[in-house]
Specification:
The complex is a heterodimer of chains A (113) and B (121). Chain A is an all-beta fold and 113 residues long. Chain A contains no helices and 11 strands. The N and C termini of chain A lie far apart (35 Å).
Amino acid sequence: DVVMTQSPLSLPVALGQPASISCRSSQGLVYIDGNTYLNWFQQRPGQSPRRLIYQVSNRDSGVPDRFSGSGSGTDFTLKISRVEAEDVGVYYCMQGTHWPPYTFGQGTKLEIK
Amino acid sequence: QVQLQESGPGLVKPSQTLSLTCTVSGGSISSGSYYWSWIRQPAGKTLEWIGRMFTSGSTSYHPSFKSRVTMSADTSKNHFSLTLTSVTAADTAIYYCARVGSPPGAGMDVWGQGTTVTVSS
């Protein structure tokens, strides 16, 4: 299975400050169709996960533009330009290239400092 | 707007079979090119993909569950189901059903609210 490693696992950030989460995969994530299936999910406290970003850098509908994704190969990053209170929760990266199975990172818990 | 809702027993005895259903509203599970998936999350832990299915009957399961898991759909009821046999305490988790967006590698774009399953005697 492809192992997804996130860092940091805990991320205290002051309101209005930027935040960055790293995700590394144990194998490159370019699929045979040329696409890279690295996705990001947000899970607010007590809620279901919600997809934020798909295929590295595409924001889902309704996702604020302060969220952005980047990366290639095995190294990927989720950035929040200015953290707001509603961004508190756990963020997961997930690879959809080498399946089965789809695999998730351990999660990064973002909290307000 | 498509919505998903899980249902099933919250308590299952060890060695017995866990059965959950995901009812889809706001759209047909047999329209479009979507897969339907189950994911679980033990308390305080990360997400674990269990498998996915297409309403044609095509399925793909996590190798770790392969011998114990079955997914199926009832298009007349617009729902799909998960069956997990020989459960142990390690199967205690929140179970989510989700729609797999297109293309499938882009992951799950619509999630249910989740249902808590506890395996205990």
